[in-house]
Amino acid sequence: MADGSLTWLGHSSFRLDTPGGKRIYVDPFLSGNPKCPAGEQSPERVDMIAITHGHGDHVGDTVQLAKKFGLDIVC
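-> structure tokens emitted (75 positions)
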């Protein structure tokens, strides 16, 4: 991948695909988010999660994703 991309997933959630191929989710409020596309609600991979602050609609699916992919979380 030569270029990175930023995809809005509804509310305050974003997926960042870096030029180096890493996939970063910011505020992953995916399930229960009416603006999140159906194909984005169960990510196939996550390399890092970043949380901007501790409100429920920003933390969202963080715990489930971190457990599934064995991730550390950046807050």
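The chain has a mean pLDDT of 93.
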